[in-house]
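Below is how a single chain appears once it has passed through the pipeline. First comes the sequence as given, then the structure the pipeline wrote out for it. We keep one example in the README because the format questions we get most often are answered faster by looking than by reading.
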Amino acid sequence: MSDSVNNIIYAADETLRNTFRLGLDFREPVQIAAMEQAAAQTARRFPYFAVRLIRQGETYRMARNDAPFVFADGGRPIRLNSEESNGHLVAFAVEGNRLFLDTTHFITDGNGVFPFVRTLLYSYLSLVHPEAEFDTSWIALPDSAIPAAELEDDPYPAEPIPAAPMKLSPRPEAVFRLPDQPQGYANMGGWTSYLFRVPQKELMRFVSSVDGSPATFVASLLYRAVDELHPENCLPVVCGMQHQFRHALGKPQSHLCHVNIVPIVYPPSLRGAEIDRLNTIGRGSLILRADDENDLITVNAHIRHEKAIRSMTLPQKRAFMRRVVTEGIGVNTFEVSYTGRVAWGGLDRYVSFVAPYLDLTLSGGVSAEIFSRDTDFDITIMQRNGDPKLYDRLCEQLAETGIHYDPVRTEHFAISGFELP
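Resulting structure:
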């Protein structure tokens, strides 16, 4: 493991935290002492998550951090890379039967952190349920060997990769933005999540019949909800679909953040369109825009940006990378992310819900996260205010499709702060 950093770290500060948390509901109260022991075991297998961020002149570096991970009481997020987190970029919180993991997109994404979570759960459940058996072929055991490709802190090639991307229609210059979503972190006390689950078989049966996917289905529901709640709108509605480009990079084991935002555009001409047409359009847009050749644009841009900032001062790097991050995300009406059908190895028998929580200042104000667990899709709708009208309309549309849904809870949420050295 080297001590280099992903260059997007230079975009971080308190006005652009880019932190996220993963919440797991267990079917029984979390035993904190056992979870702390499990976290220490897991750190041996994933040393690149047991680090602190340090400054060397005009450059940030990662350094090994042997201090124990912090577990906060009451579920509250704590500031990462601070004294409060023992300098770690990963922290935990426990509240009853809920475990929260806090970290930052500057070191990983949902796909990158899930193997860590899987090992953590295995280590913990082996302590509290020694009688349980799991399919360990899917689980990185705490003392197993670490592949070299997984340890890379800079998985990008030295020079851009030759690419012939498809010429696609550009993102619209003017995009509809939800008028009731407060900007920035000032209203974080009002950030609200709506958690519900749907049976995987029911949802997959429906989306396969309309040439869609779980992600494009949820995007279609959100588009229709936005469209019906804002009949005065005459601008395109854009879904920012989160998509990872590890495949195009050729580094499937990389733990870093490799997320691209692919726009799915719904022009005004689609107003009132049937759900099957919306799914087909969404699926087609995703296939075209997430093509490997198009993904290489993002890979090559990362290489150019890394070269560009080498001679910059820290303030110059920060200004440059903030533009890169915000322009790369683009302006979206809402965002959707689907982690995919992840393998749990049987660990999910002890988990009743998985809920990611995101930094909403980087979205249009509404984000949907879809997570596969056991026989359900766990779906979280996040927004920057507490008005339920969008969620209520989405649930009405679910009922219209005949797909059963089970509301879990509605809650306010917050994300961790981030301290630069």
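The longest strand covers residues 19-26.

See the next section for the split statistics.
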